[in-house]
Design a protein that fits this description.
This protein is α/β, with parallel strands linked by helices. Helix content is 51%, strand content 12%. It contains 13 helices and 9 strands. α8 (169-186) packs parallel to α9. The two termini are 19 Å apart.
Length: 281
Amino acid sequence: MASPHHIQTGKEELFHRLHHNGRILLLPNIWDPLGAALLERLGYAAVATSSSAMSLSNGYRDGEKLPFDELLKILKRIAATVKIPVSADVETAYAASNTALKENIKKLIDTGIAGINFEDSRHDASGMLSIEEQSEKIAVVKKTSNDAGSCLFLNARVDVYIKRNDLSDSQKLAETLKRGQAYKAAGADGLYPIFVKDKKHIETIVKETGLPVNITLTSGIPDFETLESIGLARLSYASGFFKTSVFAMKNIAEKLLRGEGMDEATANIVPSDYLNGLISE
């Protein structure tokens, strides 16, 4: 029987390969083991978590408000529930210093995840870390991972398109390229310029950084065929599935409160046997 470490390393290596096979890795974001199991059953090659969905569904606001120990427990359960790789949105890894970052990365690796999203925003302010600061942190994450015998996939999130509204579109692209190249040099495995939508910007980032590029599935982005033709490696749904679920619940709940919607509430229900069947004994 393979050791847990060998299984985890296998998942990490598979997760790396999924970014380099010439096809878009469609990476839906979940927040609990059932969601991960459902997507695995449907045939998804990997799953990722959404920090906002995990926080909100557990009664906390987004922005590292979900206690780190709780995050670790949930990630461990998700990773243990499925055979496919799990990537975790860990924001800034809850670390105020590089010493804390090193310890937290060790704990994250121990949950069995195969990758992380690691962002360059500050949680105590509206700004971003400097390129030098974030590059140093990325280097710490990669060294910690290597020292632990792990090949954890580090998806470096670049928040220029949502945080730097003082910049023009061309300046946002230039800053993203500068950060992307620096993060690659520091050891990043992938680049996530969150909420970039323009086809030319995406194509330029793919070509100029040489890293697997991840964008968010949101309104205004090019279609699947176009994204694949320009070499996009990964497409995430962020909190989309969570918001869709909440919308469906809110819609029916409002109707029931008005004495309406009984047929809708009892239609299209997923059978309990199906849900139970998603979870192993």
